[in-house]
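For the sake of transparency, this paper describes our internal protein records without simplification. The tokens are whole numbers drawn from a learned vocabulary of local backbone shapes. One such record is reproduced below, unchanged from the form in which we store it.

. . .
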Amino acid sequence: MDYDILIVGSGPAGQHAAWQAARMGKKAAIIERKPGLGGAGLQTGTIPSKALREAAYLASRTGTHGMREAASKTRHGILAEAVRRKDVVISQQESVILKRLLKSGVALIPGEASFVDAHTLEVMDLHGGSSRRLTAQVIVLATGSRPRRPSDIPFDKQTVLDSTSILNLKRLPKSLLVVGGGVIACEFVSIFAALGVEVSIVDSHEQLLAYLSEDVVGVLADSFDNMGVELHMKEKVVAIRKEEGRILTLLESGKKLYSETVLYALGREPNSQSLNTAKAGLALDQGWIAVNEHFQSSMPHIYAVGDLIGWPALASTAMEQGRTAVLHAFGKKGQSMPENLPMAIYAIPEISWVGKTEKQARKENINYVVGRGYYKESARGQIIGDANGLVKLIVDSQSHKLIGAHIVGEHASELIHTGQLLMHFGGTVHDLVANVFNYPTLAECYKLAALDCLTRLNQQPH
């Protein structure tokens, strides 16, 4: 074999698979078809959208009336600065990834990979047209996903956009209609509303982020309302058309919505179309690759990780999937994914959670109590002016163990790890009450919520 392991894709899953293989002394290579390293996570998804979000958030904090007035004065300067910062972050991160891969001895092979047989990949140079064949004992597929682009939607990268093309806008539109109420939709709603754009949402569900706790989503919905976002819930889009310099969005209810731009943010599709998986003996399920708990496909030496295998499609979990797959491939036992994975939505405000929701606990017939710690009750929350932030804990009534933590507010994505670690080690609400938190911090809200849980536990009949 030419290599011990070939990894297709340089996103978070591919990088961590390669680093783990290198640490084990394996001859490893990454094949990447795009000119830049990092996959969608760095180039067109996670990092650029979060960099834009941070710029929009900081800008929105400069005045009590948000960015509408400032945006009208500076026109498109705010977006230009946000895009500049995003590009700087991408460039810096790409440099870090490149140095780390080269230092680890991982080979970088440009081109598009497709299977010749179960152990052989043909790598096509997309610029020169030449190709070469490479073999490996183990192959890891980490090709990621892309925004879903239905053929009846008139995407043009200028007025009708997906989550990739919206990152390249050079000017702020006057109005933006977002189709979808999921993670990507809510993040871009936050960014553009904070930058003073008139934003509206169309979604088929009763609430945004339908799978999350109502009270947590309620804080986000209130934030959207304060930013002037218009919600059209329980509505379906039947057509999007260009009409006299505007975009007309027709809803199933008969409503007609006009906007300068539209963001279509309903789902993503796997990047498996060019892999020629049939030649390796792999079957696809609508483009997705099915794997077992070790991330093995139906061919034991071929692994698939990251967005290519579907849920949860997060950079953080993809990193661990890549590492876990390589450890298993080369005989290291005992490594498995954590049961409770932290999730985060980088909207304004942030939302993050780990473990069960109340709905899930009821479905599993778990007796539980809920405790809440409000940012406004902590000195740090008052200092930063976040009056609506919330730490919500779900605790098993019998064992007093933490089974779910849900946070909405500033730094939620950082704070959630306290709850995650407590759950990982089987901790109880009493451990949170006994812990000492720095003062003043938002982390104190864990103790406030834990004390609320204890009050409710004591009120239950014995």
Remarks:
- The chain has a mean pLDDT of 92.
- The CA atoms of residues 108 and 355 lie 38 Å apart.
